[in-house]
């Protein structure tokens, strides 16, 4: 649970490193919550939550890339279809340094 709290408290922290556990747990929890909540949260509140989760996801991905020994600019690969899925799987299975 500390990993999930850390996910949101380090929303603008793009330096440092994040372990696989710190990377995977928040993403799984958010995926499950989005399935449960579905269309219940919409409008302005839903948009604000989506932006917060998006920025947090980018920051945790940059920290995870740092832990794998790569530049944080690799996160730009998320913009390329299919490559983004491959990068996500890579970040989930690659051990840190």
Describe this entry's structure for a reader:
The structure is a single chain. With 97 residues, this protein is mainly alpha-helical. The protein has one domain (2-93). The protein is 64% helix and 0% strand. The protein has four helices and no strands. Helix 1 (2-9) packs across helix 2 and helix 2 runs antiparallel to helix 3. The mean pLDDT is 86.
**CA radius of gyration:** 14 Å
The stretches of 5 or more residues where confidence is low (pLDDT under 50) are none
Going by helix content, strand content and strand pairing, the class is mainly alpha
How many domains, as an integer? 1
The ordered string of helix (H) and strand (E) elements is: HHHH
Distance between the termini: 23 Å
Instruction: Work out the number of β strands.
Output: 0
Q: So how many helices? A: 4
Strand fraction band?
under 5%
Oligomeric composition of the shown chains? single chain
Apparent shape: globular
Q: What is the mean predicted local confidence, pLDDT?
A: 86
Helicity level: 55-70%
Largest sheet: none
Describe this protein with a few key phrases:
single chain, mainly alpha, 97 residues
Short description:
The chain is an all-alpha fold. The chain has one domain (2-93). Helix content is 64%, strand content 0%.
Strand and helix layout:
Blueprint: H1 2-9, H2 20-37, H3 43-67, H4 83-93
């Amino acid at each position: 649970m500390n990993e999930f709290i850390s996910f949101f408290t380090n929303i603008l922290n793009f330096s440092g490193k994040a372990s696989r556990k710190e990377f995977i747990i928040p993403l799984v929890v958010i995926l499950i919550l989005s399935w449960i909540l579905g269309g219940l949260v919409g409008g302005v509140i839903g948009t604000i939550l989506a932006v917060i989760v998006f920025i947090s996801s980018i920051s945790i991905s940059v920290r995870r890339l740092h832990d794998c020994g790569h530049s944080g600019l690799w996160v730009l690969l998320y913009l390329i279809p299919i490559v983004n899925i491959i990068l996500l799987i890579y970040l989930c299975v690659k051990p840190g340094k």
